[in-house]
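dumping this here so i dont lose it
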């Protein structure tokens, strides 16, 4: 192969240089939003394939169907940016990237079935590198270890096996903390470090301003999203009531619901679609976007199926609702409001268990940081923290016809709502 000269300095911050130099068995990078950790690791994948002809990569996420729009596209963009597109072959079925001259491959797999991963064998070279993207989604420590142990065998002189994990640390309870960050319990052969938006010079000022405002509005979420620190698990409103789960919504029989919470400059507009089946709620689709004007919002809602049923929306925005209705979205209706209705809605929501599809990971992130307020003595109260709960609010609005509509089909008054909450033991 002809000599290829690559200058990474303009695309990869120096905080990631240790990623390229380390031979440790495990490199765990926890980071804030916009820290560039996945982009840097994508460069590392290509760098190692070009430099070390024995290296093949496994790129793993918890769910295989999330790879194409994330890791696969990121690596394709990096290869294109480096001017190396013609050196690689890209296939979607199976999802792989192959270096034409050597036959080295990047295999994209999901932990949906870890035993299938263990059966992969590289045709040229050795399967000796793994990138675990969004590692926080990994459900099983045991399945992770099974895959780690499957990468084995004698490598060429100087060769080594390596696993790189990149993730946002939403909860300090996740096993990743014990395995790779706590000094008393972490594995041998671990390099760990944390990066933030400050390690990415390619961010625009609006993104940075939003991060700064988040620190003021919601310190709990900012710990993770801005500072890259472990999320606080104490006082979660929906503790043990939610999980990330891959499912086919077409296979679930139940009541379809939709909800909408409005935002604009700093607060996102959140739209969610879910299915209620007994005490289980399967949240499977939606969007979460800042700066959304009414015209593009109407288009996104229409594309998301909002015209196929009632969408319950924040009644504090009657003008926005009217404008959306004038654009053909007549199924959007305002929720009822009344004394303590928000707190009552939250209490009622705790009667359900939430199955959150990867398409709606923004809801998972909110639930991981949505807590009760503390009083001046540091004790938890029954009131929830104000902050980034827009997807949660949208889901609460979606539940409106189930939780706060009386037998006559009208919105319950205060006493009726109070009784409804008490009747389910909350």
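and the seq i came up w/
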């Amino acid at each position: 192969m002809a000599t290829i000269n690559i200058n990474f300095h303009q695309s990869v911050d120096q905080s990631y240089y240790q990623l390229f130099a380390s031979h440790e068995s495990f490199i765990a990078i926890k980071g804030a939003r916009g820290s560039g950790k996945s982009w840097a690791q994508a460069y590392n994948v290509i760098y190692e394939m070009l430099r070390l002809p024995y290296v093949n990569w496994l790129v793993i996420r918890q769910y295989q169907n999330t790879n194409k729009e994330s890791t696969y596209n990121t690596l394709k963009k990096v290869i294109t940016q480096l001017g190396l597109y013609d050196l690689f072959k890209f296939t979607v079925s199976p999802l792989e990237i192959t270096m034409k001259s050597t036959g080295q491959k990047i295999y994209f797999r999901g932990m949906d079935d870890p035993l299938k991963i263990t059966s992969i064998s590289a045709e040229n070279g050795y399967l000796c590198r793994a990138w675990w993207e969004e590692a926080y989604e990994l459900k099983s420590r045991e399945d992770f270890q099974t895959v780690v142990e499957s990468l084995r065998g004698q490598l060429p002189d100087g060769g080594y096996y390596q696993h790189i994990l990149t993730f946002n640390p939403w909860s300090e309870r996740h096993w990743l903390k014990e395995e790779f960050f706590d000094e008393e319990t972490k594995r041998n052969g671990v390099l760990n470090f944390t990066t933030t938006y400050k390690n990415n010079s390619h961010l625009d000022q609006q993104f940075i301003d939003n991060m700064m405002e988040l620190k003021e509005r919601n310190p709990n979420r900012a710990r993770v999203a801005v500072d890259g620190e472990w999320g606080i698990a104490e006082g979660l409103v929906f503790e043990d009531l939610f999980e990330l789960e891959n499912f086919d919504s077409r296979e679930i029989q139940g009541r379809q619901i939709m909800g909408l919470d409005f935002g604009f400059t700093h607060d996102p507009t959140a739209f969610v679609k879910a299915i209620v089946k007994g005490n289980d709620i399967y949240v499977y689709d939606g969007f979460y976007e800042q700066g959304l004007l009414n015209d593009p919002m109407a288009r996104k809602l229409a594309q998301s199926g909002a015209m196929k049923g009632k969408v319950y929306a924040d009644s504090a925005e009657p003008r926005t609702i009217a404008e959306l209705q004038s654009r053909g979205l007549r199924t959007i209706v305002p929720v009822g409001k009344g004394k303590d209705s928000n707190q009552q809605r939250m209490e009622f929501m705790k009667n359900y268990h939430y199955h959150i599809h990867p398409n709606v990971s923004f809801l998972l992130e909110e639930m991981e940081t949505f807590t009760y307020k503390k009083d001046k003595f540091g004790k938890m109260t029954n009131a929830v923290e104000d902050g980034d709960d827009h997807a949660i609010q949208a889901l609460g609005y979606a539940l409106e016809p189930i939780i706060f509509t009386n037998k006559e089909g009208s919105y319950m008054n205060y006493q009726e709502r109070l009784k409804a909450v008490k009747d389910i033991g909350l």
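The domain at 242-423 is CATH 3.30.420.280 (Nucleotidyltransferase; domain 5).
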